[in-house]
Design goal:
Elements: E1 6-12, H1 17-20, H2 47-50, H3 56-67, H4 72-84, H5 92-102, H6 108-130, H7 133-147, E2 148-158, H8 161-176, E3 180-183, H9 192-197, E4 205-211
Parallel strand pairs: 1-2
Antiparallel strand pairs: 2-4, 3-4
Length: 212
């Protein structure tokens, strides 16, 4: 990290709302678009290409590790089987349809809600994998103390349990080593009023640390 010494660092790990709302980027489930999911469309493979290179167990592991998807095995099997049969999975709607078909066995009274959440988790898992988001975050957290001045403070907003676990683990490890003098004992969550004003803030967790 070529910066510092800094007195304060604020990191917002969320994806830009402008990116989410742009159907051409493939982040939205509401409007059909290409199954891309790259934060930088000029770098790396889109999700539609990535899934073609993975076997069932690799895809299942992505859904579990990146999103804790309870139906990861069934969805991964359906995607790989569909591709082998020549079915195209190049748009957000095509992937969404496969997930819906896979979960048709769910009880009718809660099938819609569970399918919606499964779609959200699977798309999130693929986005994280396509952009190596956890890898980038781990490198940032590792180098962060080097950029902070003595007594410098860092605050991180995360929107995913996997992100928050990494932030918590890194903060606590550096605290035990004496590199941080204090860390947030628990994450700070948005108030009901904040969530009402900005529904996308619902999953936000805020953690802080202070360098010794």
């Amino acid at each position: 990290m070529e910066a510092g010494p800094l007195n304060f660092v604020l990191a917002d790990l969320g994806v830009s709302s402008m990116q989410i709302d742009n159907p051409d980027r493939g982040f939205s489930l509401k409007i059909e678009g290409p199954l891309d999911l790259r934060l930088n469309p000029k770098s790396g493979k889109p999700a539609s290409e990535l899934i073609k290179t993975l076997d069932q167990y690799e895809l299942e592991e992505i859904f579990i590790a990146n999103a804790d998807e309870p139906y990861a095995d069934l969805i991964a099997e359906a995607i790989v089987t569909s591709l082998k049969k020549g079915r195209r999975i190049e748009t957000t709607a095509q992937l969404k349809d496969i997930i819906k078909e896979t979960l048709e066995f769910l009880p009718k009274n809660d099938r819609v809600e569970k399918t919606k959440k499964a779609c959200q988790r699977c798309f999130q898992a693929l986005r994280i994998e396509v952009n190596d988001e956890f890898g980038v975050l781990d490198k940032f957290l590792e180098k962060l103390p080097e950029a902070l001045a003595p007594g410098g403070k860092v605050a991180i907003l995360s929107f995913h349990s996997g992100e928050d676990r990494r932030v918590k683990k890194a903060f606590q490890a550096f605290y035990r080593q004496g590199i941080y003098s204090s860390v947030a004992p628990e994450p700070i969550r948005p108030s009901a009023q904040e969530i009402f004003s900005n529904p996308r803030a619902r999953s936000t967790k805020f953690r802080w640390a202070i360098k010794a």
